[in-house]
Amino acid sequence: MTHHAFGLDHIHPDAGRSGIGRRLFDISLSVAKAAGLRHIDASIGADSVGALAYYSAMGFTPYREGDGVIIPHRFDL
Questions:
Q1: pLDDT given at position 77
Q2: Which of 9, 31, 60, 64 could form a disulfide with 55 if both were Cys (CB 3.0 to 4.6 A apart)?
């Protein structure tokens, strides 16, 4: 099994709600599909309310038990 990884740490809070996150995700989604990936995983801090809301809005869902600090999410392609 081949794994591919890339990351985006965060969008600066001053740029929030401007559509930048959605545009970056759209580009990442295109690249992931072109690479033949089956899903995108994200490790989201359990206390990161903004990130949890963002990834949920993008269509990510929790897919396995986390450690209480990180909640693993997945987006199926």
A1: 93
A2: 60
CA 42 – CA 52 distance, rounded (Å):
10
- Closest alpha carbon to 28 in 42, 7, 48: 7
Does pLDDT of 3 surpass 90? no
Q: Can you give the C-alpha Rg of the chain in angstroms?
A: 13
Q: How many CB atoms lie within 10 A of CB 3?
A: 6
Whole-model pTM?
0.82
> What's CA 61's distance to the chain center, in Å?
10
Instruction: Please provide the size of the chain in residues.
Output: 77
Evaluate whether 20 touches 54 at the Cβ level (below 8 Å).
no
- Amino acid in the structure at residue 23: R
